Structure prediction request, 306 residues.
Amino acid sequence: MARTILYTHASGAGHQTPDGHAEQVARHQAVLDALADLDLDRRQAPLGADADVLRCHPASYLQELRERTPRHGTVMLDADTFLSPGGLTAALHAVGGACAAVDVVLQDGGNAFVAMRPPGHHAETETAMGFCLLGTAAIAARRALDHHGLDRVAVLDFDVHHGNGTQDLLWNDARAFFASSHQMPLYPGTGAASETGAHGQMVNAPLPPESDGALARAVWDDILAQARAHDPQLVIISAGFDAHAADPLAQLNWDEDDFTAITRAICDMAAACGAPVVSCLEGGYDLDALGRAARAHVQVLMETAE
Prediction:
């Protein structure tokens, strides 16, 4: 019987941010604590290979991150994105976990959740931003497409912020369907419905502030109908939990039932296509809400693992 695999690594707690920063070390433990009693296949996320990173980011960018990594303290990459001594290592283990998850589910079926930080969906081709250093979900998609030879992958992002990095990295790739629901207006200011990718393979669904989970569920029903038409062979989820009503960085009003329903709808669509699922942690900045929503998400993965 297939099981849900949990990939994580201690380096997820090694990326330091300044005191008071939303993307804090405690996020990693909050997720792991929430999943502690679940019957998961727990595995260490390996260090991501440069070859996988270079499918999305140029060597010059990776080298820049290495050169700017401090020995002590933090370096500011932009107004809210910092690099600490353990930051790039943590991001590389997130990449390695996502790529290992792709390898395993394509070979053995089932599904996987990658519980790592920092998040990745804001990292553009040569730009770290929005707490993100490397485009984890996009790199995992390219691993499936280029290493495993898949023809069609879907990356589905329900983080409250638009996945501008994933969109940038996959914009020109007709093989990669990308969809994002996100609050608008909100950081980073991208994600208009008119942004549809170089091949019409992208769907952006802006949601107004103070809207609720009922609207989100309806929007995701429409997104998933379009994803189903792409007939993906693998589904990658950018699982941000900052659309929760308790989150301090946005003004949507989702609860655990909404994350459960949207995750189940995604998994049902994937099953209809015969596609395994890999989910990668993105945002979520109220620690209690993050834990509850992540647990709800993973419980659906467990129920639908095949």
Summary: The chain has a mean pLDDT of 98.
